[in-house]
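Issue 218. Parser rejects a valid record. Input:
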Amino acid sequence: MRTLVKKVVPITLFKRVEPYGHLGEAMLLQARHGFPARNLKVIGVTGTDGKTTTCTLITQMLRESGYKVAMMTTISIDYGDGQGAQPNNTRLTTMGAAGLIQKLKQIKHKGAEWLVLEVTSHALAQHRVWSVPFTVAVMTNIGHEHLDYHGTFERYRDAKKMLFTACNHNRRGLRAGIANADDPSGILFAKEVANPTLYGVGGGDLRARDIELSPAGSTYTAQAGKDTYRITCHLPGSFNVYNSLAAVGVGRAIGLSKDQIEKGIAALTNVEGRMTHINEGQDFTVIVDYAHTPESFEKVFKEIRPLVKGKGRLMAVFGSAGRRDEAKRSQQGEIAGQLCDIVIVTEEDDRDIAGQEIMQQIAGGAQKAGKTEGKDLFLVHKREQAVQHAIDIAKKDDIILLLGKGHEKSILSNGPKAVELRHIQQDDTDPRRVTRRDYDEIKSARAALRHRLSKKP
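Output the parser choked on:
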């Protein structure tokens, strides 16, 4: 039905009425299925970057403390039944109302008491999470993303803020909000809840100090008033100081002890596709990460740049998605051009948009930063070939960052009728316009490394 409506209703009108359609669907389905999240304690995590990692840190901390916890993120769905996580193959961080309610029923049936839920701006704006009882809300940061849908940064930010408003309306919950004090939008989120905590490095109620960073992670002291916590986070990067500090805020909000918070965060050793090191015995470094926004690019490049040794170079392989925010493409290219020695532009998920057009937009930003095609800027559309090219030209002590795909297991490409039907609103389910092929960045990197190493004399 929704596909038919998209075809007959003008795009501008459809965007106006779409949220109400989702709201009606959510209300109907919740009532029909008896509000399956009732009595679940839900921790919602929203933001531009770091949501999945923060969800995973919170989940691990709660489990180490003896809680029965389910988790739904971009990467996976874990029902909290001890069977482990299952891949989330929907490509939706937060599912539509029907899928979400089905999962909530399964989670409740399997006996989970808590749910850690990654919540997107789309899901909030479209009321997909209507009636989900958020007891704690978390905001990681707000950057440049999804403006193709929301139109302006302010609308995007305000959609995210709806999570905190919903949390505050849940009188049976803690009405607690954990927001990033070092983000300009943080204070706006904190004002939406009765019991806010602002966390940060530069300011906030909960601060990280005495931070020591290493390629293996970080250690720091988290301080809130007279309370102190010695935190060990095994995830590298200063951005993971923020993610783990948000988890400390959640732990405090729900009443965990100092020992539970410290041991719980230290128990997490990795998150798939997030700063994942690939080692096949090579003398250079290969890292897979999901970073795909200008803000996350800047953070990752600035974190990794100081780790390059001797004559080593920093190399980035990335693309930008079709049918998504076009404005960020040149920004991604320019940031990479400024902070990396070599930039290799490739596909991410073209969908039904011309891949060469997307790559040229990215390349324009890299060229603005001084990169020259054929010298330190390369355009290789097929992603497997781009990864192989990066690994083939790598030298001792280089660091290669493979960005944008992370945990994902497929790539969306032009279908046979993509050009003819490109004027129609996005529809990834139409095989004439969009095709899907299996792709795993981690496996691709390992295969490329083995190929290169097999050629060594």
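Fixed in the parser; the record now loads. The domain at 276-454 is CATH 3.90.190.20 (Protein-Tyrosine Phosphatase; Chain A).
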